[in-house]
Specification:
heterodimer, A: two-stranded antiparallel sheet, B: 5-stranded mixed sheet, 26 strands, 14% helix
């Protein structure tokens, strides 16, 4: 029994010595780094293994409830509603509801410039925006600034056509609708690239 | 005049004054004599305003103080304030201590004003590529298992230059930190059953801009949350009341406030914000899109413009943060960048969080330049302005995180050094 205790104490002693040695062998920088790391990480997620399959909170919604809110337009035209408009149709409504902020012909002031080609310094629909569908989506959800969401789909098509034509991206007479809008070629699209930054030392 | 008098007399007194065992009339008289004005505010909120009629020379320990109230107040001697513009308001980084931003000083950026939302009339919709389209009220969200996380939120357009008289607030005050509480987005995704085909989701706010961003689904299964609380209380309206998306480490505009709808999709929807706005010019004439992660950055908040220094010991202080994880180290130079020393980091260092650093410096009174650079746990080192300009082939724009350099003049004045 006594022998066993001694052996055990010896083993403990050896383990303690081992740790002490490895601690002493660490450079101060290593130790500093380890201290900086602050031991165990603070978790970024809760433990979830005991969660039930479903909590059964909330309510299931119907297509009728979703439809009026589902206004997102994808670059391939997904989501575009029925309706149509030409630049000529859009002139009047542009002057009524947009020109006071964006200028008589989209030249800007007091707010964003909307019309301009490569020679214009400010970002415009013509020299910067990569997708024509974004115009419809954004005008419908957020414009006019003082009356958001007040335009009909028809008016949004007309304004979209007006702004595309003002930027010389389409002809005055082209009818803009769910089929033609996604096909409008935006001259700046080729410049857009996905984020290629990564973890690590490279500055991009 | 009479009306005003009457108002003052009718003022409700907090119940906590009862222990003074005075009758109401006497008590009011007493309170008035002490120079305290009790103000009855709308919604019956009683606050005390210690009118600063006591000259400072009077010993405060010889005068009865202000009784307890329903809401705390800042000392009248402290006046930290956001710096507002038409579209944003900046956090006074140089006036803060530690890493938590008081909720009323959290930076603001909105795209059509702050909406007023009644939480009992607000639902968060999930639809699109899901098994079961569902809506959750604020009360529903609060029933789910909750989680709390401290992290920064930074606007990706958070760099200003061009003047030597810019404060930290003006240079990069569009970053703030809170302790957020809510539910993991993945918990909600599991509840509605996200289909395998879903690779993105489009998040939409309930503000007048119906602010919309496309987010890769992977972020939801990493650390995204839907949060309803900030620093121990309900989220402030300016931060997205009643609920917002929290995407730790990602640019602020993706963390949709006033969140009302999430559509699961198989493609990004190329919304206005992710095409015409939050994109930046990079090398070879390209425009970078979906630059979600905020690169590591630091700034010395003291000394900074307009500090006035005296020779001797100075504790250089600042914050550092990285959207990629923890801050590994902050290096400080007090000799114009010729040599760099490790700053002390305040523990605990949290992932994707503002981290306080300090460096004790004995200033000999000679003019010099001081600066800090952050290194994160992935090995990224914060670049100088010139390094960044060379790498980007661009002199600014979104995601611009260069070293901030301060010039210390011989007379102790401190100014920003631009573009170094």
């Amino acid at each position: 029994m006594q022998d066993l205790m001694t052996v055990r104490n010896k083993i403990y002693g050896a383990i303690v010595l081992l740790f002490a040695t490895s601690w002493a062998c660490q450079t101060s920088t290593e130790r500093l780094q380890q201290e900086r790391k602050g031991g165990a990480d603070v978790p970024i997620r809760p433990r979830e293994e005991h969660y039930p399959k479903n909590f059964a909170f909330g309510r299931v919604i119907t297509e009728n409830e979703i439809a009026p809110l589902a206004i997102n337009i994808a670059p391939d035209g997904t989501g575009l509603p029925a309706g149509k408009g030409t630049a000529k149709d859009g002139v009047l409504i542009y002057h009524q509801k947009c020109a006071s902020c964006h200028g008589k012909a989209g030249e800007g002031r007091p707010y964003d410039r909307l019309v301009g080609d490569r020679n214009v310094k400010e970002k415009t629909i013509g020299n910067y925006w990569p997708y024509a569908t974004t115009l419809f989506d954004y005008i419908r959800r957020a414009m006019p600034y003082n009356e958001p969401g007040s335009l009909t789909n028809m008016e949004v098509y007309q304004l979209t056509a007006y702004l595309l034509a003002a930027n010389s991206l389409i002809a005055d007479t082209l009818q803009i609708n769910a089929t033609t809008l996604p096909k409008v070629r935006m001259p700046n699209q080729y410049k857009f690239v996905r984020d290629d930054r990564q973890d690590g030392p490279v500055i991009r | 005049m009479k009306e005003n008098k009457k108002k003052a007399v009718d003022t409700t007194v907090p119940a906590s004054l009862a222990h003074l065992k005075m009758d109401r009339r006497k008590m009011l008289k007493g309170v008035a004599a002490l120079g305290l004005v009790l103000v009855q505010e709308p919604l019956d909120a009683v606050t005390q305003k210690a009118e600063s009629i006591h000259p400072l020379a009077v010993d405060p320990s010889k005068v009865l103080g202000v009784p307890p109230g329903t809401l705390g107040t800042r000392s009248v001697f402290e006046k930290p304030a956001k710096l507002p513009s038409f579209t944003s308001a900046r956090t006074p980084l140089q006036d803060l201590y530690g890493t938590i931003t008081p909720a009323d000083l959290h930076f603001e950026r909105d795209h059509a004003g702050v909406p007023r939302i009644d939480p009992t009339k607000h639902e968060l919709f999930f639809h699109g590529l899901v098994e079961k389209p569902m809506a959750f009220t604020l009360q529903d969200l609060k029933r789910f298992p909750s989680f709390t996380r401290t992290c920064f939120i930074e606007c990706s357009g958070n760099f200003r230059t061009g003047k030597t008289t810019l404060t930290p607030q003006e240079i990069c005050g569009l970053t703030s930190q809170s302790e957020w509480t809510g539910v993991m987005l993945s918990t909600l995704f599991r509840e509605i059953g996200v289909k395998n085909k879903a690779t993105w989701f489009v998040a939409e706010g309930g503000d007048a801009a119906l602010m919309t961003r496309s987010i890769p689904v992977e972020k939801a299964f990493d650390d995204a949350m839907v949060v309803y609380a900030q620093n121990g209380e309900a989220i402030r309206p300016e931060q997205g009341y009643p609920m917002r998306l929290l995407l730790p480490g990602w640019e602020g505009n993706t963390q949709i406030k006033w969140l009302r709808r999430i559509e699961l999709t198989d493609q990004p929807y190329m919304t206005r914000e992710e095409t015409s706005k939050y994109t930046e010019n990079v090398a070879e004439g390209k425009i970078r899109q979906f630059s979600f992660v905020m690169d590591a950055r630091s700034i010395i908040t003291f000394p900074s413009y307009p500090s006035q220094l005296a020779k001797g010991w100075i504790e250089i202080r600042g914050i550092a943060w990285s959207g990629r994880g923890k801050i590994q180290n902050v290096e400080v130079s007090v000799d114009e960048g010729k040599s760099w020393q490790d700053a002390m980091l305040q523990e605990p260092v949290l992932s994707k969080a503002h981290t306080t650093f300090r460096y004790l410096w004995h200033w000999n009174g000679k003019p010099t330049l001081i600066m800090s650079r952050a290194i994160d746990e992935t090995g990224y080192r914060q670049p100088s302005y010139r390094e960044l300009v060379a790498a980007r082939e661009s002199r600014g724009g979104y995601h611009f995180n260069p070293i901030t350099v301060w010039e210390v003049k011989g007379n102790g004045e401190v100014f920003l050094v631009n573009d170094r």
